[in-house]
Each structure stands twice: as structure tokens, then as C-alpha cells.
Design brief:
By secondary structure, this protein is an alpha+beta fold. It has five domains: about 90 residues, Nucleotidyltransferase, domain 5, CATH 3.30.420; about 70 residues, Beta Barrel (OB fold (Dihydrolipoamide Acetyltransferase, E2P)), CATH 2.40.50.140; about 100 residues, Ribosomal Protein S5, domain 2 (2-Layer Sandwich); about 110 residues, Aminopeptidase, CATH 3.40.630; about 70 residues, Ribonuclease E, catalytic domain (Hypothetical Protein Ychn, Chain: A), CATH 3.40.1260.20. It contains eleven helices and 26 strands. Strands 4, 5, 6, 7, 8 and 13 form a six-stranded antiparallel sheet that branches. A six-stranded mixed sheet has the order 16-17-18-19-21-20, covered by helices on one side. α6 links the parallel β18 and β19. α6 runs parallel beside α7 and α9 crosses α10. It starts with a strand and ends with a strand.
């Protein structure tokens, strides 16, 4: 299935939308002040060892301590006892597996991996004397003959002095030998730089930061099915073009600088899709609907027939609603970036072949998801339990916070999210009108943020539009409420 990727870049954030069948399927947001730390590598210090939990708290230089479990320490002949491996004050190299989420600190591993476009390098996956280097093949390459051919091909390209392991990514199948050799050389050089930095810095210290979201698009998201990658920032387009020429030359011709009058995300009504993805209810074309609820421990999805009465009997109505819901659920998981444990309560079906068809439809649509999922069959209670790998925060965790007026039962957009919406709206108004000045009328929390943390971005926008931007706090406004007055 062909796809188009849109990259919207402003000084305050980068937003990426993946479009398939003329509809947005995935959204990724990275804010300048809150870049994710997944895949970052740190020289860390052990703060506290917890034998009862087989875990330890680790200082990586953030406000909140990270944690590591014994299973993420690598191979240790310690009989599963973390206290025999780690001690307080010890320094060690770690990599972030999961961003901090809610009250939880970042999750770490000592099993370092460095990702390239075609290969993933495992520098600490040491082989024993006389044994072959470990070469893993992406699970997405399913044909046994292709897997074996790729493995044999890599064996002939790996330097004789290499002792680490290699994972072959899907894109390696169409890459030339020269490209794969260059990819591995870059990854090995990166690792040597990390080792050198670990000798020069004191713990806790950041040794290696993963690529920005825009560059991760080229490394991880774009592929042969990508027809076009549109970027709306000329400065960043040049940077991405240079990066592509060096590391992903096959994507260079697909990069396009967007110069249209309309905002890039407005081409596919993405702002509206973002707002819908923050709500609990998802309407289906048939008249049915989903109710999606997130908690810190799991996500639950309830399927309802709603107003759908189009089929001749109840079984057909339920079956058709559940089939449509299976398609919508797969899309919503990607769109909202929901991870962890997910419980789906489809409408009860009396026929076994209907249940099997709905399960197959769900798995078929999940196959397009680049994030690993594991789906179980219907339980005795008629529920489907599944997991989706969670590394980065969900869309709602990035854009929203618990609602203070409903005791945290609902969510509202954060003041920062509202600030950035206002900045985008001023750019739209600037393109259409020519006012003498702009006046932002918003809640005190939003105005305070413009006067403090977001003052730099507001000033940059003022320079861009070449017009004064006034601020007016309105005590009666709710947090999400604002007006932009053109004078």
C-alpha cells in the first residue's frame, strides 16, 4: 500500500503524519523542549538496588531516577540475583528502552543497540572464540529462503575483527553491498565514539542521542511504499536532503519542499483528525461507535452498534459492526500510539465463524502497523486481549493532562498544546489577512506560559509575521478557550 509522509516543522515542535488511502494513519510529535529519550545512551550511576524486585534505580541525569530489571542486564552468571551484579555508586553504560511515563521513570537496558537504515548493531553481543557472529533477520522478512540468503550475504560483508552482533532490517533486502558496508562502518564508528566519550565524562552523562523525529522518518518510517515526503521548512528540507544523500540515498528523490499557501497539515484535514483522536468516542460509518479509555495500566475499547440497523437480523448487524470496528481499532491504535495491554470488547457474537472472521480482520489490519503487536483469541468472556509495544508516549499523553474540574476523570489539552495551536493559527491568519497587529485572548495559564517558557517562540513568530502580537488574559476563559483578534 502506497503512503505519503508529511513533515511539519516549527521552532517549537516537529509533527509527522503518515497518509495511506488519503487518510492519516499515524501521527508523531516531538517538542523541542521535551524530546523523547528512547535509544539514548548514557553513562549512568546506580542509586539503589532492590533485590526483592530484581531491579535497580539508576541516575541518568534526569529529575526522576530511571530503572533497570535484571533481565535487561545482559548475560550474567549470578543465578538471577541482581545484588550480585549491581551495587550502589557503580557506573555503567545503559540505553533507554522506554520514555518516562506518568509516575514511572525511564526503563533501561545494558543490551546496547545502535540502529541504522538497514542494520542494527549489537556491539556487546560478543561471540565465543571459534563461533560465528550472531546475525538476526527482521521478523517482517517471512520467506525462509530470503532470510537465509540475507544472512549468508551479510556473513561475507562483516569485517573479520567484528565480534558484535547484527540485526538485518527489512530495507536491507534492496540495499547494495556497498550501502550495507557503509552502514555497518558508520554504526561501528558511532560505537567507538560512545566508548571514547564514556572515558572522558563523569556519570551521569549523555553519551549518544538518537536522531531527531524528522531524521527518524528517513531511517525508520519511509520505505519502498513511500511515494513522497513533503517538508514545509526550507531550512530543515536542506538538512534532511543532506542526511538522505549520505544515509538513505534511495529516498532523496522522494523529498519535496512544500511551498503551498495552505498549511501542510490542512491538505488532509489533519488538525481535525488530531482533535478526534483525543476523544473517547470514534464513530463508525455504519452508525456504530467505539469507546476508548486509557489508564496507566491498560487501554479498553468497547464496541457498540449505536444506530446501525441496516442488516436483516441481529447477528448480521453485530457481525458487520464488529468487522468495521476491527478495521477502525487497528487504525486508532496507530493514530493514538496506544501501547501496553489492550482489552477489546466486541459485541457478543453467537457464531464461531463470525468471531474468527473478526479476529482475522483485526490481524490483517494490524499487519500494516510497524509496532510489534500480539493478539490473543477471544476469551471465555468474549474479550480480545492484545499487547502493542509501548516505547514512546501516546498522543494524548503528549497533548493533554488530567482535567482539574472533573477530578482527573477526563482530559484537557495542556497550556503548552494551546500555545502551539495559537501560534499555528496566527500563521494561518497572517497568510490570509494583513492586520496591523494580532491580539491573543486566552486563559491566564496560557498567557502566563507565553510570558515565560514560550516567550522565545512567540518573539520568533512576531519577527516572522512582522506585526506586533499582544497578549490579553481573560479570567473567565477555560484552559482550551482562546480568541485571536485582528486589529
Amino acid at each position: 500500500m502506497s503512503q505519503e509522509i508529511l513533515i511539519n516543522i516549527t521552532p517549537q515542535e516537529t509533527r509527522v503524519a503518515i497518509i495511506e488511502q488519503n487518510a492519516v494513519q499515524e501521527l508523531h510529535i516531538e517538542r523541542t523542549r521535551q524530546r523523547g529519550i528512547v535509544s539514548n545512551i548514557y553513562l549512568a550511576k546506580v542509586v539503589r538496588v532492590l533485590p526483592g524486585m530484581q531491579s535497580a534505580f539508576i541516575d541518568i541525569g534526569l529529575d526522576r531516577a530511571a530503572f533497570i530489571h535484571f533481565n535487561d542486564l545482559g548475560d550474567h552468571p549470578a543465578g538471577g540475583q541482581i545484588e550480585k551484579v549491581l551495587f550502589e555508586g557503580q557506573t555503567l553504560l545503559v540505553q533507554v528502552l522506554k520514555d518516562p511515563l506518568g509516575t514511572k521513570g525511564a526503563r533501561l537496558t545494558r543490551k546496547i543497540s545502535i540502529a541504522g537504515r538497514n542494520l542494527v548493531y549489537l556491539p556487546q553481543d560478543h561471540r565465543s572464540l571459534g563461533t560465528e557472529i550472531h546475525i538476526g533477520i527482521s521478523q517482517k522478512i517471512e520467506v525462509p529462503e530470503e532470510r537465509e540468503a540475507l544472512k549468508n550475504r551479510l556473513k561475507g560483508l562483516i569485517p573479520a575483527d567484528e565480534s558484535g552482533g547484527i540485526i538485518v532490517r527489512t530495507s536491507a533486502g534492496i540495499a547494495s553491498d556497498e550501502t550495507l558496508i557503509a552502514d555497518l562502518k558508520y554504526l561501528r564508528t558511532t560505537w567507538q565514539g560512545i566508548l571514547q566519550a564514556s572515558k572522558e565524562k563523569a556519570a551521569p552523562a549523555l553519551l549518544h542521542q538518537d536522531l531527531s523525529l524528522a531524521k527518524r522518518v528517513l531511517r525508520d518510517m519511509a520505505g519502498p511504499e513511500t511515494t513522497q515526503i513533503r517538508v514545509d521548512s526550507a531550512e530543515n528540507f536542506e538538512r534532511l536532503s543532506q542526511f538522505a544523500q549520505t544515509f538513505t540515498p534511495q529516498l532523496s528523490s522522494k523529498l519535496v519542499l512544500y511551498r503551498g499557501e495552505r498549511a501542510l497539515f490542512d491538505l488532509f484535514d489533519i488538525e481535525s483528525e488530531i482533535s478526534k483522536a483525543l476523544g473517547r468516542r470514534v464513530d463508525l460509518k455504519s452508525g456504530g461507535y467505539l469507546m476508548i479509555d486509557q489508564t496507566e495500566s491498560m487501554t479498553t475499547i468497547d464496541v457498540n452498534t449505536g444506530s446501525f440497523v441496516g442488516a436483516r437480523n441481529l447477528d448480521d448487524t453485530v457481525f458487520k459492526t464488529n468487522l468495521e470496528a476491527a478495521q477502525a481499532i487497528a487504525r486508532q491504535l496507530r493514530l493514538r500510539n496506544l501501547g501496553g495491554i489492550i482489552i477489546i470488547d466486541f459485541i457478543d457474537m453467537s457464531q464461531a465463524d463470525h468471531r474468527e472472521a473478526v479476529l482475522n480482520e483485526l490481524n490483517k489490519n494490524l499487519a500494516r502497523d510497524h509496532v510489534r503487536t500480539n493478539v490473543n483469541s477471544f476469551s471465555s468472556l468474549g474479550l480480545i486481549e492484545m499487547t502493542r509495544k509501548r516505547t514512546r508516549e501516546s498522543l494524548s499523553h503528549i497533548l493533554c493532562e488530567p482535567c482539574a474540574t472533573c477530578n482527573g476523570k477526563g482530559e484537557v489539552k495542556t497550556p503548552q498544546t494551546i500555545c502551539y495551536e495559537i501560534l499555528r493559527e496566527i500563521v494561518r491568519e497572517h497568510r490570509q489577512f494583513n492586520p496591523k497587529e494580532f491580539r491573543i485572548v486566552a486563559s491566564p495559564d496560557v498567557i502566563d506560559l507565553f510570558l515565560e517558557e514560550e516567550n522565545q517562540f512567540l518573539a520568533m513568530l512576531g519577527d516572522f509575521v512582522q506585526k506586533p502580537i499582544r497578549l490579553q488574559a481573560e479570567a473567565g476563559f477555560k484552559q482550551e478557550q482562546y480568541d485571536i483578534v485582528l486589529n
